[in-house]
Amino acid sequence: MNGVIDNIHTTQEKIAELEQQSGRPRGSVTLLAVSKRQPVSRIREAAAAGLRNFGENYLQEAVDKQRQLEDLSNLIWHFIGPIQSNKTRGISKNFDWVHSVGRSKIAKRLSEQRPLYLKPLNVCIQINLSEEDTKSGTTITQAADLCALTDSLENIRLRGLMAIPAPTDNREAQRENFITLSRLFDELKSKHPSMDTLSMGMSNDYGRAILQGSTLIRLGTALFGPRPS
User: Fold this and answer.
1) Which of the four pLDDT bands, split at 50, 70 and 90, describes residue 174?
2) Which candidate in 2, 99, 100, 196 could, as Cys together with 6 as Cys, close a disulfide (CB 3.0–4.6 Å)?
3) CATH code for 4-223?
4) 13-15-16 Cα angle (round to 5)
């Protein structure tokens, strides 16, 4: 089994090939390492390989890791999980990015609770493409209103869109989902110049996501292997 560093280098080579294939400059796609449930030792390995962006789903787990990694001051922490109202204060204080804002209430709380000594919190609006009841996010039709509200708040910065399309073995359906999100992103960023991030693509589909315009992919298994139980 390959180690974390080998996995990262292999993935970075694939990303570079996909950037070239889609006619985009090298380095245009950000690799976000999904480190939830991974031990601190593996995050250190990934950081030693040059990664700076790490994604966590659970507030307390992330805060514990951040304390143990205080010596690595250049890490950028992304919250990518569902957001409960009672966790917004902790999230706003301990993260640089939040990818999963799907309600106006959450956006307002993150802005109000962001400490003033920190830079504005970077925010992506989560889109529930298939409008699944079990999945967080706003609908395509409501996305414009939520983006407008978020862009008006003082202590957060609207950076883009995120989605987790429903799992499918149908590659054409998967491609259509990515195209839908990419078109919505292009439409909204014409109204909101701060939007520069399209967060879509995970370990099993990031190649197709990049070819459809993703600027940030969220990879866990491809880098770290199966998560510890």
Assistant:
1) confident
2) 2
3) 3.20.20.10
4) 65
Residue 161 CA to residue 27 CA, distance in Å, equals 19
CA proximity to 153, closest of 203, 108, 119: 108
Indicate the length of the chain as a whole number.
229
Q: CA 152 to CA 93: how far, in whole Å?
A: 20
- Show the tokens assigned to 146: 């939520």
Q: Which two tokens stand for residue 204?
A: 């099993």
Question: What is the pLDDT at residue 229?
Answer: 61
| Geometric angle at alpha carbon 216, from 215 and 221, rounded to 5° | 145
For residues 199 and 124, is the Cβ–Cβ distance under 8 A?
yes
Of all residues in the chain, the percent with pLDDT exceeding 90 is 87
Provide long-range contacts, Cβ within 8 A and 24+ apart, for 95-98: 95/62, 95/121, 96/121, 96/122, 97/121, 97/122, 97/123, 97/124, 97/159, 98/122, 98/123, 98/124
d(CA 177, CA 130): 9
Q: What is the DSSP string of 138-166?
A: B-TTTHHHHHHHHHH-SSEEEEEEEE-PP
Query: Under a CB-based contact definition with an 8 Å cutoff, are residues 88 and 100 in contact?
Result: no
Chain-centre distance for alpha carbon 112: 22
Instruction: Find out whether 213 and 199 touch, Cβ atoms under 8 Å.
Output: no
Model pTM score = 0.95
